[in-house]
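User: Predict the complex.
Assistant: Input components as received:
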Amino acid sequence: MPLKASYRHTYRLFIIIGVLAGAGLLARYLLVPSSFGQYGAYRGGAVEAARRGEPLHLGQQGCTECHEEKVKLHAKDAHHRVQCEVCHGPGRRHAAEGTAASIDKPRGKQVCLTCHQLLSARPGAFPQIEWREHFRFVGVKSDNTPCTRCHEPHEPLYMDRDVRTARLHPLVQRCRDCHAGRTRDPSTPQPAGHPAIFECSYCHSKITKDFAKRPHHKVRCSTCHLFFKESEFAGRIIRDADPRFCLLCHRAGDFRSDKAPPGIEWPAHRQEVAEGPEDAKKRCIDCHRDRIHIVPGKGDRP
Amino acid sequence: MGFVFPNEVHVTWTVMIVLYPYITGLVAGAFIVSSLYHVFGRDDLKAVARFSLASAFVFLLFAPLPLLVHLGQAKRAFNIMITPNFSSAMAGFGYIYLAYMVVVVLEIWFVMRPQFIERARGRGAVALLCRAILLFNLHSDEQSRLADRRIVRLLAGLGIPMACLLHGYVGFLFGALKANPWWSTPLMFVIFIFSAIVSGIAVLIFHYFVVSWINGWQVDQRCVRAMGKYLWGFMIVAVALELLEVMSIAYKQTEEWEVLSDLIEHQLFVSYVVVQFLILSLVPFLLLGIAALFRLRDRLSNALTWIAATMLLGQVLLMRWNVVIGGQLVSKSMRGFTSYFPGLWEKEGLVTAAVIFTLPFGILYLFHRVVPLFPGAARTDQTRV
Amino acid sequence: MTRSRREMPRRELLRLLAGGSGLLLVSCVPEAGADSRKGYDWSRHYWGYAVDTTRCIGCGACMRACRAENSVPHGVYRTWIERYRVDARGKVAVDAARPDGPSFGVVPGEVVKAFFVPKLCNHCERSVCTQVCPVGASYATKDGVVLVDEERCIGCGYCVQACPYGSRFIHPTLHVASKCTLCYHRITPGLQPACVLACPVEARLFGDLKDPKSRLTTILRQRRYRLLRPEMGTHPKCYYIGLDAEVV
């Protein structure tokens, strides 16, 4: 008779395994968080936790309550798209505490150069400078001079945003818009298939020829004339020739080097040369047009 | 060098994640050897059957340790069993490991029951321990032993696919990750399993020789020759698959080949091409081939086999390193590489790795003190193995 | 799979066991439903994001705003900017923004083409990270934002490996996975993410893909855009306008 196997000695073992398995299942059942599976294979309470948290950045309207004047000034100018908190850091703490210590007041060139340093990867139309070159050009003698010496950060370039008649200016490009870091030799012919290069002289030859003979001939057209492509402001003089614009280069100061453009004291200069009450409102260009260039159609005289 | 995404500079899966598949690989390989005896009746492996089962158990015990060291929140480790997300290959780990551990523990219980009973009849702490393990039931007769044998065969048979699953899911985890060009291949699952079996057989050979040498025992020649042949066969398949994988991507030359060829030619040239393939694959292949195909004297054959097994142990570890670390050196931007050195005393450093790897051998020795793992090991004057 | 029907008997059982096991009590605290921000109905929104790479000036204001808003530690990035510089021979050099100060420095060398590409989590519709999380800590909300449950995450790092875009990282002090949350705490009360607010040139756009009148939807209908690594099948919801072929 074949041997019959006896499993009696295994009963204890399998009972214990069964008990442990049962305990394990019970433990698992109890340990699953109650909101798990509420919306999907995750803990529903996590969504609630993710929505909590005070936003630390307030946006422009958060600053307006106490700093209305500054915000209005800022909104009118070239930096109007730059949020206050980009330079000053998140404002929630400052809005709650109101102290100077609770907000950043960044100083120094690096703040401005973070956006305005000339980099080959930056779009050509974006205003950017090589700061040493810029300092030489506008005659600043010390490397330590902060940008804010001339450019008020909340109003760096006054821009009148009331729109006059929209004018379409031909697509104007600078070589640097596409060929960052290289300069074009004007004598080389335009290669076939190259996007059209416009020089100011193509349409405004009378002006450019005249300008070349005047004291400002080293200044690029785009320094004074808004130059951005397809903009309704294209061609207009920055700040509408407000004296403060000319003063960016021509305000005298001990920070200027010997090579600086001729400088004046302002508003002293206006008081000096005013001959009558109507002169009080004149702009620099009204008297000093002969230093700039003729405007054909306005009598062809400087 | 080159460009890596800023978040990729730091390598996330460290030497601990190299060690984990290595250890589970040793488990899988050792278990296969044990099952070759218990299920498929390969009598020539009888000498190491018990030893391989105990090795599988001890390595399995230590397998989660590198993972626990690596986890950012190890105290939440049980989340993987409480709320597993089964769309993730990694979620299987908790339950597969648990089930497989149960199988191995049960198999040891049934295989070694006679030895436990013998020890339990003595006096002292070890005897008490054995009685507790037997759940205070020391009954044994012909019928119960027959039942034991049947259960063992069942468990060993059940254990083979589970061992493949326990180790294979790691390979699948890497191979199914489309974001990483070095890892993403359907072959990864198979490569991991076969190299795991290679490492398992190799560690058994290595350990068996060392233990026999230390104790002055004579090795079972039939067993060693059989293991050598199995090792040779499995390593041919494993290395062939590894070569096939890299040759396939080299031939296809899709977008990622540019950065991967750079990886192989520079970053991994020494560890992958020179050491893993030329030294630690080719040489053992030749040594084991000579031992298998030519009729050599026992001493020479054993020496070749042991050297080859030791080299293959290193080869499998290096293969894990090259896969895990190599894959993270490549940036997903396809433009550059980061670098990695595990550090010596860091939480996930080399010293920790060395400790985790050597501890199982110590525990195996303790196991042996409770239940001898080498029945019939004879002392001999000719102690040279 | 909801457990709402079983909550009551379980709470009774818990009270019984509470006396015996403090541990169980800690892990079983009942949690409220997820509709606290009054009035926010997540089924009515589906958030998307667009990046206009032709406008980015690489100033890094977005990175600094994100870092401040979300307390992101140094060395890891929820968002970053890449700079691509192509020389006359067609060789491309890529570098990433520094976290502080001027994000990019002047690099000498001839450049014929250069541009910036901001990057962030793409909040994919079929995200790999949610698929591979073993414990259900990485998930997508009904309004299309992929988030991490920082109390559930075990820090295994699988999601970090799985993301094809390098958007995820292991938080160096919390030791859990972390990434861009689209400032979920800001967008649910109707604000914009911090990075979108900070960008001075409108290179980053955020909006509701379910709203046919939103600025984002309008722009996506007017402009040509591309996705990052579309062959991965992740269906990212971050649309790149003016994306160059060199960008992966």
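Chain C touches chain A through 74 residues (CB under 8 Å).
Let me know if you want any component modeled separately.
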